[in-house]
Design a protein that fits this description.
The protein has an eight-stranded mixed sheet with strand order 5-6-4-14-15-16-13-17, sandwiched between helices. It has a six-stranded mixed sheet with strand order 8-2-1-12-19-18, with helices on both faces. It is about 30% helix and about 25% strand. Helix 1 runs parallel beside helix 10. With about 375 residues, it is of the alpha/beta class. It folds into two domains: about 170 residues, FAD/NAD(P)-binding domain, CATH 3.50.50.60; about 150 residues, 2-Layer Sandwich (D-Amino Acid Oxidase, Chain A, domain 2), CATH 3.30.9. Pfam families: DAO (PF01266). Keywords: Oxidoreductase.
Length: about 375
């Protein structure tokens, strides 16, 4: 492994690979990406693959809106030899409580202010979009046709190949063991395969970002939270959009191949690194999914898995330079939506690192927001 680099990126998921590409395409040479396992082995490869613009905070909505535009043209932009499988079947977000419906109204107001074409619709209109939707207790729904889903493995592969063509080096099955500092400035990265001298480090390793920050003497306000998902046998197409119910903690979509991917959140999930699947989840998701979408009751499960959300205190990303470690940057705290905002997260962070004009105020994602004052909590996390 090489001994020096202009930039070392820790993490081989959507954020790390996209940052590598964005830096390289802007002319940065000698970039190394370090991944402790294989590319997409962390949260990216375990996510639900959804891409939505229906968020409650302006910051998340902007990142998602602009990332959708990138997903739409990604095959061409990255000259990908396969297909990222971005399909815009829409997102249908259903509401079963008045409190939830009031929040949806506020969210849609934010989205409309940003030009996101979300519609507020009646239960009957929702059933026209998803005929097997259970209307019992349904108050209303929001729908955005330009939302959709993509193949996370193919997206990362596309960024990887594009970055590789630009000269980026990728070191997989390599763990970071330390960060070298001199007088509060980063000077290198220590790994299981040798040390790399560098003045720029990007910490993009999801739920492990806190561990890396500790190596530089900083306690990142982030915690891991297990989320589980499953995939069913493939069946004939019957559901276009992703269906989300925050009340039932459910998301459910049918992939282009016919399988259903679904998951439910658990508010009682402990803050730890457990990624084992559980029988309790299987019972829970079956109960919630068949309540909202009764047609699914006869589907057979192929497999289930789990991954970790990297949760921030306000469920918004953290994009900032690490205090006391000049030259070390962190991109974490995506709280379950890192994949869908990955393309523009990479652009924004790269612009900041290179001293370029940022397309939106990156300070909104800074660590200073946790020092005092009221946080802008993201309400639409499932």
């Amino acid at each position: 492994m090489q001994k020096t680099a202009n930039a070392v990126i820790i993490g081989g998921g959507i954020t790390g690979c996209a940052v590598a590409y964005e830096m390289a395409v802007r002319g940065v040479k000698d970039i190394v990406v370090i991944e402790k396992q294989y590319l997409s082995s962390g949260a990216t490869g375990r996510c639900g693959a959804g891409v939505r613009q229906q968020w409650g905070t302006e910051t998340n909505a902007i990142l998602a809106r602009d990332s959708v535009k990138r997903f739409e043209g990604m095959n061409e932009e990255l000259d990908y030899d396969r297909d990222i499988e971005f399909k815009q079947g829409g997102y249908l977000m259903v509401s079963y409580t008045e409190k939830e419906w009031d929040q949806y109204k506020k969210n849609v107001a934010v989205q409309h202010s940003l030009g996101i074409p979300t519609k507020m619709i009646t239960p009957q209109e929702a059933r026209e979009i998803v005929p097997h939707l259970n209307l019992n207790g349904l108050i209303g729904a929001t729908f955005c046709q330009s939302d959709g889903h993509a193949n996370p493995f193919h997206v990362v592969d596309a960024y990887y190949k594009a970055a590789l063509r630009l000269g980026v080096k990728f070191e997989t099955y390599t763990s970071v063991t330390g960060i070298t500092l001199e007088k509060g400035t980063v000077t290198g990265v220590q790994t299981t395969r040798g040390d790399i001298a560098t003045s720029t480090v990007i910490n993009a390793c999801g739920y492990a970002a806190g561990t890396i920050c500790k190596m530089a003497g900083f306690e990142l306000p982030l915690y891991p939270q297990r989320h589980q998902a499953l995939v069913t046998e493939p069946v004939d197409p019957c559901q276009g959009p992703m269906v989300i119910s925050l009340h039932y903690r459910l998301y459910c979509q049918q992939t282009p191949h016919g399988s259903f991917i679904m998951g439910v959140g658990d508010p009682n999930e402990p803050k730890d690194f457990n990624i084992n699947s559980s029988w309790e989840f299987l019972e829970d998701v079956a109960r919630q999914a068949t309540t909202v979408l009764p047609l699914l009751k006869n589907l057979r499960v192929v497999r289930q898995w789990s991954g970790l959300y990297d949760m921030s205190p306000d469920a918004n990303p953290i994009l900032d330079e690490v205090p006391g470690a000049k030259g070390m940057w962190v991109a974490a705290g995506f709280s379950g939506h890192g994949f869908m905002v990955g393309p523009q997260t990479a652009v924004l962070l790269t612009q900041k690192i290179l001293g370029q004009e940022c397309f939106m105020p990156i300070e909104r994602f800074g660590l200073a927001r946790f020092l005092g004052g009221e946080l802008d909590l993201e309400s639409a996390v499932v």
